[in-house]
Amino acid sequence: MPREVALTKIRHKIDETVRSYENFSQIDGRHPLQERVPFAYVSYQARRRKGGKVSFFNFPLAKEMGLIAPDHPHEMNDALNEKLLDTFALIIVNEYDLMHPRRVAKDEVKEHHYMATRYLQLQHADRRGLSSGDGRSIWNGCWNSGGRSWDISSCGTGATCLSPATSQQKTFFRSGDPNVSYGCGYSKLQEGLIDVLFSEILHRNNLKTERVLCVVEFPKNFAVTVRAGENLLRPSHFFLHLKQSRLDRLKPMVDYHIERQIQNQSWKTQPGVSPYRLFMKNMVQNFAHAAAQFEAEYIFCWMEWDGDNILADAGIIDYGSIRQFGLFFHGYRFDDHERWSTNLKQQRAKARYMIQTFAQMIAFLQTGRKKPIEKFARAPELAEFDRVFERSRQSFFLRRLGLTHDQAQLALQRYGRLVVNMMKAFSVLEHAKSSDSFHKVPDGENWHMLFSMRKLLRQLPELMLQSKPPLSGDKLLTLMASQVAKRDPLLASTRYQKLAELVQKQYSQLVDKVLESTDSNRETALQEIFKRAALINREDRVTGDAVCILAEQLTRQRRQLSSKQFHKLIEEIIRGQVLNPDFVPSAYIDTKRMEGVLEPLVRHAIKVVHSYREGL
Questions:
Q1: Sequential DSSP letters for 40-102
Q2: Cβ(423)–Cβ(416) below 8 Å
């Protein structure tokens, strides 16, 4: 082949690659909210932030969003790296910068303005959302592809006027000021990697969550974490207008949200159902379901009256306050300096109160009159919330037993009383605290739990499958004992022994009844239940502590690995935590065999997960 022809082909390939990344050029700060709800944000110019490097890019998510080609290799290249930096390596020009101007090249400043959205936050003393919202984040824009719209935002892009520090001290701060707590505007690389691991693990385990699209690293381990979701609005985006009694601002925000959910086909319209009734119906369903799921999965999500730490579809956001516990640590509370968080058992009440607030909000929209929140303490939506929560809680419980969806529905329809009675006995054991008391943990306080119920749920189907006689109460308690409670005197409790024997008996009765009601082969069905229960209740289940350690190690390891190796290592860690037997892998996930150099790193990650399996 002549040299000129070869060079022409190479140039053509390079030009084609560059053109394939032009979708990112449309993520330029513009967002429908800027026109639909112009009072819902603070507008900022942004400029290119120097010294950045793309540490992580979520290739499967980018393909799902239609940002890159479906056959793009899961490996960074110079053209993609530069395009991502141009799109996401940003820092805002904030109020401090305007007061202390410095020379900035015109080509560094982005053409369009970006928004820091306003929303209610309990960290702000006024409790009305007058000065609160995105304190270190901006919304990069809205991307539309394949009939779906995606919101994209970035954390760590500089200090906005909506941070708690600005509200408290009544002054503006330079982005990155190391002397400012809760308001420097930057985020750490380790935070971004925690978000990557946790969000993808929970996403594949069938929990609603925002996801990380990209992590851009800067010197001194700072980073910008780019997050994506089909709708990143939170309840707090509505509640601040409600608290301020601003009907003129509340209505366009709620109307926009309803239209967005319908356009994305997240909500289905129904004949005769008004948009606001549709809104309430989905809020009740989503928040009741999420509260039950968090309780079943031991997920700590600090839900509060402000509706800040959760998405409006009850999805998880902001992993700085999210944990997945190894045991039912209902004594754990996070110490946020000026206040203590809620605990696992209080999450239901907090979600319920948000539904009460939504009921107040919808009545305000329909009548134009804002009634006190107390007037909605007996709103019919709360009774519906209780019904959905209880039904969801029962379904999640049966799933933990290893039953399929159809088997669980059959059990609820025909043997509901047995299910309820078993859950009562099971719950007493699950909630049992050790004989010590509260103790300090790095970010709050906790109380050790006596039993690991997942151990029991792994054992029960195996006993039935192998036709072994029931275990005695003392043996069951020894089997279930948590690591820290091996010698706890409460393990000799007669009450707990009887409850453990009762749960074992009820489990056998329930499974026998379900299998008798189906035409499936008993041994084959038991094998399936055993496999499902073993996966769902697997001992090596990642906790918040483990994710923090893994992210810290990844921060160090990334320098010794190529981009391809680093992304593969993250994928292997995530894949090892998919404990959902019904998970169907995305066609975009890289399933190729990992390289030999990664095997010891993956084994070490598994050891970390195992070491912290009963932690916070």
A1: SEEEEEEEEPTT-EEEEE-HHHHHHHTSS-TT--SS--HHHHHHHHHHH-EEEE-HHHHHS--
A2: no
Instruction: Answer for the pair 370, 244: CB distance below 8 angstroms, yes or no.
Output: no
Pairing verdict, β 114-117 and 148-155 = unpaired
Chain segment 197-235, per-residue pLDDT in tens: 999 999 999 999 999 999 999 999 999 999 999 999 999
- Is 452:431 a contact under the CB 8 Å cutoff? no
Measured distance CA(423)–CA(406) in Å, rounded: 19
Number of helices (H), then strands (E), belonging to the chain: the values are: 21, 14
Cβ atoms of residues 26 and 141 within 8 Å? yes
Confidence class of residue 443 from pLDDT cuts 50, 70 and 90?
confident
Vertex 353: Cα angle to 291 and 339 (nearest 5): 90
Per DSSP, helices labelled H in 482-538 are 494-516, 522-536
Using alpha carbons, list the distances in angstroms from residue 605 to 215, 528, 551, 595: 21, 28, 10, 16
Q: How confident is the model at residue 10 (pLDDT cuts 50, 70, 90)?
A: very low
Closest CA relative to residue 134, chosen from 237, 253, 252, 28: 237
User: How far is residue 433's CA from residue 428's CA, in Å, rounded to a whole number?
Assistant: 10
Q: Do the Cβ atoms of 381 and 355 come closer than 8 Å?
A: yes
Are 594 and 602 within 8 A, CB to CB? yes
Q: How far is CA 121 from CA 168, 240, 279, 550, in A?
A: 13, 9, 22, 30
| Contact status, residue 434 vs residue 448, Cβ threshold 8 Å | yes
Question: Which 8-state DSSP code applies to residue 147?
Answer: T
- Name which of 17-31, 105-119, 343-357 the model is least confident about: 17-31
User: Measured between alpha carbons, how far is 10 from 16 in angstroms, rounded to an integer?
Assistant: 10
pTM to 2 decimal places: 0.93
pLDDT average, residue stretch 309-338: 91
Rounded to whole angstroms, the Cα distance separating 239 from 564 reads 44
What angle do helix axes 347-367 and 275-297 make, rounded to 10 degrees?
170
Q: What is the mean pLDDT of the chain?
A: 92
Residues forming beta bridges with residue 226, ordered by sequence position: 154, 214
Tokens of 53: 């490097």
